[in-house]
Design brief:
alpha/beta; 6-stranded parallel sheet; binds coenzyme A; 2 domains; 4 helices; UDP N-Acetylglucosamine Acyltransferase, domain 1; 8-stranded mixed sheet
């Protein structure tokens, strides 16, 4: 059994608790120590999930435990991952037993594949990539570090999702398209052309509009 903490005690963190529970139900692998969160997670809700709030994220420096990041924001995952790596911590990779993952798939450290998600063949994910429930990834896709696929997002074959990009719930990316680093594809959008970095793209077909990050001039 490997000691494990989930970083983030909000909704996504609790979704990861469910993934850990489902993994352990098939074959006990993780001794779940609890949740780390710098904010004020709902302790009652966490207790109902059978876990404790252990304290702030910096406690990870002192815990002899693997970690997964139950945080939706790719930027926040990157920041915490860099700190955790400096502290010598190693991420766990989680695959819900109801997910379908092909044999020639390489999942990067910290990647989480939630229930009913599917990955077919010759796919690579980077660090802390999150495939939420029922997301699908077809052949030859490349998902950079900290990519998020929201529930039901669909990547056709040979799609590239740049580092820190987010594909919104129910969005579709057709075959061969590249989504730039940091870009957000809105819920329900259909991407039919490459998208540049750091834009928000919505609609069918998806068209970029300047992201808040660009609009504020923050690099
Ligand atoms: C695209 C998105 C990032 C925009 O967020 P935002 O910048 O806060 O946008 P706002 O809500 O202020 O809306 C701005 C405009 O875009 C429109 N819009 C927002 N999301 C849209 C979408 N997905 N498709 C089409 N139009 C959208 C709004 O109607 C609004 O139009 P208006 O100015 O004509 O009224 C967000 O709406 C979205 O789709 N996020 C993905 C959510 C998701 O997948 N969640 C999963 C969680 S597990």
């Amino acid at each position: 059994m490997k000691a494990l903490v989930v970083v983030g005690g909000g909704g996504h963190g609790r979704e990861l608790l469910d993934v850990v529970e489902a993994v352990n139900a098939v074959r006990p692998q993780f001794d779940l120590l609890g949740v780390l969160d710098d904010g004020t997670p709902d302790l009652e809700v966490l207790a109902a999930c059978g876990v404790r709030h252990l304290g702030p994220v910096r406690l990870l420096a002192e815990l002899d435990a693997q970690y997964v990041l139950g945080i939706g924001s790719p930027d926040a995952r990157r920041v915490i991952d860099l700190a955790a790596t400096e502290w010598g911590r190693v991420p766990a990779t989680l695959v819900h037993p109801s997910a379908v993952v092909g044999r020639r798939v390489t999942l990067g450290p910290g990647t989480v594949v939630c229930g009913l998600a599917s990955i077919t063949t010759n796919v690579r994910t980077g660090r802390h990539v999150h495939l939420n429930i029922a997301a699908t990834v077809a052949h030859d896709c490349r998902l950079g570090d900290y990519v998020t696929l929201a529930p039901g997002a669909r990547l056709s074959g040979a799609v590239t999702a740049g580092e820190g990009s987010t594909i919104g719930t129910g969005a579709v990316v057709i075959q061969g398209c590249a989504v730039g680093a940091g870009t957000i594809v809105g819920a329900g959008a259909v991407v039919v052309r490459d998208l540049p970095a750091d834009v928000v793209a919505v609609g069918v077909p998806a068209r970029p509009r300047p992201s808040a990050r660009n609009a504020s001039g923050v690099p």
